[in-house]
Design goal:
Length: 728
């Protein structure tokens, strides 16, 4: 049932300011808040999957792109609901409520204390977090996708027919609000994520990073509803998308029904719809199908483009984000895309294209789209080169049948070791510089008299603390981290070589009580000048160390340690893992190439689709364009799962190669495409008198019925003749 109160007076005049309806300001603010909410949440989403839900890179990438695909599949649903049932206003309101609930549920899912039963902060039931997260993301996908095709169109409805100039300015402001929301959110939400929060333990504050976008979505909904009395609300008038698909369905069904070769031929398979639909609609469907055919290769571009929020963000976690005056978090690098869009769009439109035109080069829209795909492929080649350099700086971790060991001498004099075939000399309270690699079982000789047969867990990194002053020497193995520290933090732990317990803290982070002659837990410490407070019952020592991104240290408190003014000088740092040394600035070229590709590809694609679409089917092509984004994210899932490549750089090269192949295919398709003027074609069909169209349609039906009758007569004569032959 149609929403009968959607707009009783769709032509009513709204109050204006400087010639613009006041209502559009509510719509622009609504869009800014909604885009802030969406892009802010999405900026930290893949890190939430990896570091909070503890999913590996591949699975985190899979769920991320599944979510993005759903966000671009649901616009079709939103357009049908708005145009056929509720109208744009009610669709936006109802689905925004769904959207807001989804954001709130996602924020609640990230509160790491909601299922804690232990004061160590370990969730007692991670399943609840996962269920809430998936429910929240599903509601967000329905909400954001459902309102996507409605908001901009609803804004356009606020203008009268004579306000074409103001309507054009509105769409420019509307686009600016989208990019402003995206830019600010990708800067702010990673900062919010970096805060520490929690009741029992302090962890990265994903609940705050999701909670602020949820608050912005609440504000978006309130602002939109407040302007309700000022809006021009056009009632639903039937969805052209439904007519589009029913017309195609009838043509296919009718052609299949008359698939015999004896039936009169038709120029185009859509002409089989003439028995039910007029020629104008059929001609419009033909024009749309012609463009949609060109869309077939386009999802491959989006398959690469949307990986800046997944693979490229994960790549940045292994890089150095120190830019001197500011420190960039891995998820903040996505801000480069929004900044470059604002810079490159006017440069490309005002400088690059005019220069190409002056060179007498016919840079058609389809050629621009081809060039855009080529730039995206180059961006992934650049990403592959960056990944190769990153991998050279990463430590070599042991494979499953191997173990890696570092030895620490807790004696007050040098110590000779023989580990397997390796001879090592350790000074007092120091460790060997690099990890030694062994088979799972290896022999260890301490000094010249004490032999040990050692077995460690396959694929593990270990630190073996040796107390040589006991008889026999005492060995204490500890398991080390076997991957780069999370989110670019530094994994720090303390070994307490004293005979009494110590407590170690840094800011709000607590290493806990470190028992005598024992190792503390690892604590993730952010970049900067870290000040560790080492406390006994009545005394305190402050130890300061400068930390970069992604390093790991074991800080030894030797038996000779004593509290006092020079206490920190006796603490011995052991470097277990080098800090990230390849700078995030090296990601800028790949972001530049991808954004340049986006500006040439996306803006031109929308312009081309608009120019080649019939006046009443532009929304159909808009839905088709959004569908290519959804399919592109599905392609990521298929390729990533099917390829199973061990090296990330190889996956980047694979995606670049696939896009280059698709680029060639699209260039061939574009070569044979003939540009049309939809308005001219529609005008030709519009000149046909309605009575004449009805007469032609009836004539076509009579022809079909006449052919059927002739066919029945022929079949009857054949059957009679066959019966005679049988009797004979």
């Amino acid at each position: 049932m149609a929403a009968k109160d959607e707009g009783k007076d769709p032509k009513k005049k709204s109050a204006t300011v400087c010639g613009f309806p006041i209502s559009i300001f509510f719509i622009v603010v609504n869009e800014f808040c909604e885009r802030f909410s969406y892009y802010g949440m999405r900026a930290v989403l893949v890190l939430y999957f990896k570091y909070f839900l503890r999913w590996d890179d591949d699975f985190a990438t899979t769920i991320y792109h599944t979510f993005v695909a759903l966000c671009y599949l649901t616009p079709i649903m939103g357009a049908i609901v708005a145009d056929s049932w509720l109208g744009k206003f009610k669709t936006i309101v109802y689905l925004s409520i769904v959207y807001t609930v989804g954001q709130v549920v996602l924020a609640v899912s990230a509160i790491h204390d909601i299922t804690d039963t232990n004061r160590d902060g370990t969730p007692d039931n991670m399943t609840l977090h996962i269920v809430l997260s998936m429910l929240g993301l599903a509601l967000i996908a329905v909400g954001t996708g459902g309102i996507k095709p409605c908001v901009s169109a609803f804004g356009g409805d606020q203008f009268q027919d004579h306000q074409e100039k103001q309507r054009g300015t509105f769409f420019s402001i509307f686009y600016l609000s989208i990019n402003a929301g995206s830019l600010l959110s990708t800067i702010i939400t990673p900062i919010l994520r970096g805060q520490e929060c929690g009741i029992y333990t302090k962890q990265k504050c994903y609940s705050l990073a999701f909670g602020v976008p949820a608050g912005l979505m609440v504000a978006s909904l309130i602002v939109f509803i407040v302007g309700s009395g000022m809006y021009i609300k056009t009632p639903p008038q039937g969805n052209i998308m439904v007519k589009f698909f029913t017309c195609i369905g009838f043509a296919i069904k009718n052609r299949f029904r008359h698939r015999t070769n004896e039936f009169p031929k038709r120029t185009h398979w859509m002409d089989w719809a003439e028995e039910k639909y007029d020629k104008l609609l059929i001609a419009q469907v033909k024009m749309v199908l012609k463009v949609l055919f060109l869309y077939i290769p386009l999802p491959m571009f989006w398959a690469l483009y949307d990986q800046q929020g997944s693979r490229w963000t994960l790549q940045a976690t292994n890089m150095d984000g120190d830019f001197g005056i500011l420190t960039i978090q891995p998820d903040q690098m996505q801000t480069i895309n929004a900044i470059l869009i604002l810079l490159l769009v006017p440069i490309v439109e005002s400088v690059i294209y005019p220069l190409i035109a002056k060179c007498k080069i016919n840079f058609t829209p389809l050629r621009r789209i081809t060039v855009g795909m080529f730039f995206a492929a180059l961006a992934f080649i650049a990403a592959a080169l960056v990944e190769i350099q990153i991998e050279r700086t990463l430590p070599k971790f042991p494979s499953s049948p191997e173990v890696q060991v570092k030895f620490i001498n807790m004696g007050n004099k040098s110590l000779d070791l023989t580990a397997g075939t390796n001879k090592v000399t350790l000074e007092a309270f120091t460790a060997n510089a690099d990890y030694l690699t062994f088979e799972q079982h290896f022999d260890l000789t301490v000094g010249s008299d004490f032999n040990y047969s050692t077995t460690l867990t396959p694929g593990s990194r270990n630190t073996m603390v040796i107390f040589p002053d006991t008889t026999p020497p005492k060995l204490m193995p500890f398991t080390d981290i076997n991957a780069k520290p999370e989110q670019g933090a530094n994994a720090i732990r303390f070994f307490n070589g004293l005979d009494s317990d110590l407590n170690v803290t840094i800011g709000n982070l607590d290493f806990g009580d470190v028992s005598a002659n024992n190792m503390s837990v690892y604590v993730g410490v952010p970049k900067g000048s870290a000040q560790f407070k080492i406390k006994s019952a009545a005394e305190e020592c402050v130890y300061t160390q400068e930390l970069g991104f992604g390093s790991s240290f074991t800080l030894i408190i030797p038996p000779t340690f004593a509290f006092g003014s020079n206490c920190e000088q006796s603490i011995r740092p052991v470097l277990d893992m080098e800090q990230n040394s390849f700078h995030m600035a090296w990601q800028i070229p790949q972001y530049f190439l991808l954004t340049l590709g986006e500006v040439v590809f996306s803006v031109t694609g929308l312009e081309f689709s608009y120019s080649q679409a019939p006046s009443n089917m532009k929304s159909v092509l808009q839905a088709g364009w959004l569908l290519t984004v959804a399919v592109g994210n599905i392609v990521v899932l298929i390729v990533a799962e099917a390829a199973t490549l061990q090296d990330q750089w190889a996956e980047y090269v694979l995606f670049a190669s696939l896009l280059l192949v698709v680029c060639v295919i699209f260039a061939i398709m574009a070569y044979f495409y003939t540009y049309i003027d939809p308005a001219k074609i529609e005008a030709e069909f519009a000149q046909i008198d309605p009575k004449q169209k009805e007469k032609r349609r009836n004539s076509r039906k009579d022809s079909v019925e006449q052919h059927k009758e002739e066919r029945r007569s022929s079949d009857s004569s054949y059957d009679n003749e066959e019966q005679k032959q049988t009797r004979i």
